[in-house]
Amino acid sequence: MTIFQKIIDREIPADILHEDERCIVFRDISPQAPVHLLIVPKKLIPRVGEALPEDEAVLGHLLLTAAAVSTRLGLNSSTEGFRLVINNGRAGGEAVPHLHIHLLAGRQLGWPPG
Questions:
Q1: Which H or E run contains 68?
Q2: Based on the structure, what is the number of domains in the chain?
Q3: Whose CA, among 13, 23, 87, 90, lies 20 to 30 Å from 47?
Q4: pLDDT, tens digit, for every residue of 3-38?
């Protein structure tokens, strides 16, 4: 069981900003930007590289949820912005084997990342 599943099951506390039947959004405990949220599907998909065709709806839902939460936080204006990051595998920066999207905002984000 991953740490994210423990948060979903309320075994570990988290600062939850959104929850619905398919996903949960909470603040990262080790933020890399002033706003650092994790958007996590409730279905365990180890990583995006292992997603299946039947996961298409939940994958799209994660992106739409990111957009909705960012709007609620005022990050969708022309003067603000945000970055979405999905890590896949150890070399890709994956620390938890449960697919999740990082939403980073609140400062100028450099390019290229990494």
A1: helix 56-72
A2: 1
A3: 13
A4: 999 999 999 999 999 999 999 999 999 999 999 999
**At 77, which CATH number?**
3.30.428.10
Residue at 112 is within a domain = no
The residues that are catalytic are 100
In a domain, 113, yes or no: no
**Rounded to the nearest 10 degrees, how much is the dihedral formed by the CA atoms of 114, 55, 96, 83?**
30
Q: Is the peptide bond before 34 cis (omega within 30 degrees of 0)?
A: no
User: Are residues 68 and 90 in contact, defined by beta-carbon separation less than 8 angstroms?
Assistant: no
| Structural domain harbouring 62 | 3-105
